[in-house]
Design goal:
Layout lengths: L1 E6 L5 H7 L2 E3 L2 E3 L4 E8 L2 H10 L5 E3 L15 E4 L22 H12 L3 E7 L9 H12 L2 E9 L7 E2 L1 E9 H4 L36 H9 L16 E2 L17 E4 L4 E3 L3 H7 L12 H10 L3 H22 L1
Parallel strand pairs: 1-4, 1-6, 4-5, 6-7, 9-11
Antiparallel strand pairs: 2-3, 7-10, 8-10, 12-13
């Protein structure tokens, strides 16, 4: 088993992916030879969910800036989706040099100190283009200065069987001595021209619980809004969903967040249920979320899609096994 340290773990989307052993959309994602030995996040509620779903050597709620690398066990792989709000193109007013934006340096610090064979970092698409790519260049240089050859790619989750149009940057770092032995290759797309539709996550449009429906006042407000408002993002069940976010509990009909049109004639719209949102992110149905529905929505929206991350993790498995064969 390869030992894994999970930074910024949240509820465990990446961790579900790297462990495997789950079913999504009637497909089995096999158990991968990775073992969680340490997970850290600043959100206690997300870690409550993590503890419920994973066996992990040590789970820490705390600020990664205050964690000494010596407290973290030795490992083969470090994974982490460092906070991305500052890099998001959805809110370009965010300061890309604020405290959260510099958290990648904390991940690089730990990578440099622990010297894992591989690290996997995840972030939003906007990180590649902000300030004409200077932010992304800075991130890459930080990891390469830690002693790693980096491989980066913009992943589209729908290309890997996730029923969602979600684009994320993945950076895989290979320790220089191993990179000299074997180069790394990203996994091939499994669903490039065969995207999984939203209907996989939403088997029935009409549900009984009134709390998921928007009021007629909200519908009228959308109709009265200015023409340039981002509205009408109700989803086609035959296509993947638009990107879900941590704001799922607060979506409005005048936002960029996707909603469901239940009945055009009666003008009935509703938001996703937590289970539907989890399926859109490719969590298996047996994955349990603790806390309130608002807590679950936030954890789901912030997560890395497990199915997409499984494919990345499996490519890392193949790489590590390939290195071992060459050494032998």
């Amino acid at each position: 088993m390869y030992k894994v340290v999970s930074l910024f773990s949240g509820c465990g989307g990446a961790d579900q992916g790297i462990i495997g052993n789950f079913v999504f959309n009637q497909k089995q994602y096999k158990r991968l030879p990775f073992e969680l030995v340490y997970a850290i996040d600043i959100d206690q509620k997300a870690l409550n969910t993590h503890r419920m779903n994973f066996e992990c050597g040590k789970v820490v709620c705390g600020d990664i800036c205050a964690v000494d690398s010596g407290e973290i066990p030795d490992c083969d792989v470090i994974v982490g989706g460092f906070p991305c709000q500052s890099f998001s193109t959805v809110n370009p007013t965010k300061d890309p040099f604020d405290e959260r934006a510099n958290l990648y340096r904390q991940m690089a610090r730990i990578v440099k100190d622990k010297k894992p064979k591989v690290f996997i970092a995840e972030n939003v698409k906007g990180m590649m283009t902000l300030h004409k790519g200077q932010i992304f260049k800075r991130v890459i240089e930080e990891f390469e200065n830690a002693g790693y050859q980096t491989y980066s790619k913009l992943f589209h989750a729908a290309d890997y069987g996730v029923p969602q149009k979600r684009e994320r940057v993945i950076i895989v770092g290979i320790r220089n001595d191993l990179n000299d032995i074997l180069k790394y290759d990203f996994p091939e797309e499994t669903n490039k021209d065969n995207w999984v539709p939203l209907s996989v996550a939403v088997p029935e449009l009409a549900i009984k619980e009134e709390k998921y429906y928007f009021s007629q006042r909200a519908v009228q407000g959308m109709k009265n809004a200015k023409n340039n408002m981002k509205r009408g993002l109700y989803q086609d069940l035959n296509q993947p969903c638009l990107t879900v976010t941590s704001h799922l509990a607060k979506v409005s009909l005048n936002s960029r967040d996707p909603v469901l049109l239940v009945d055009p004639q009666r003008e009935l719209y509703r938001r996703f249920t937590p289970q539907e949102a989890a399926r859109i992110q490719s969590f298996p149905d047996e994955f349990e979320f603790t806390g309130s529905e608002a807590d679950a929505y936030r954890q789901i929206g912030n997560a890395i899609p497990p199915v997409m991350f499984w494919h990345i993790s499996d490519s890392v498995r193949q790489y590590l096994e390939g290195v071992q064969q060459k050494i032998i």
